[in-house]
Structure formats: structure tokens, C-alpha cells
Input
Amino acid sequence: MGTDKWDHPKDRFFTHNGYADQAPNHVKKDGFGKGNWGKPGDEVQDLISEGAIPAEIMDKQRRGSNTSSNEDKLAKVQMNSVKE
Output
């Protein structure tokens, strides 16, 4: 009695769209967000390629005030102030 659909249910994710090995609610999660707008920070590479942000700014390893030459100068000043 009834339809075959209700008498023999399919696997949980069989009737949903998406990849075979994944749950259908995970398909868009790698795009991070509603409508797959991307992950936070992805827009930076787009701005660099468009020329809105100079590439040199993003390639710095350290801040300029923390370079080793400045640290050496600061250490000498601190040692001189301790001696006085």
C-alpha cells in the first residue's frame, strides 16, 4: 500500500544535490559564505593585481621600526643610559 518512495526510503543524501561523498550542506562551505563570496582576505590579491594596493606593501617581512639595525641602536642607547 502506498508509493514505493515511502515504503523503501533511500539513503540520507541520495536525493540531494552535490558530490557523492559529501553531505549536501557542505558543498558551498569551501567558498565560505552565502553566495560563495570567498574567504576574508581574498580581496587583497585582487586589489594587488588591479594595482589599487602596491605589491611592496604586502611583501614586507617585518615592520620598519623592528629591523635589526634599529634594535642594535636601541640596545646601545639603553646600555648607555644604564651606565650613566
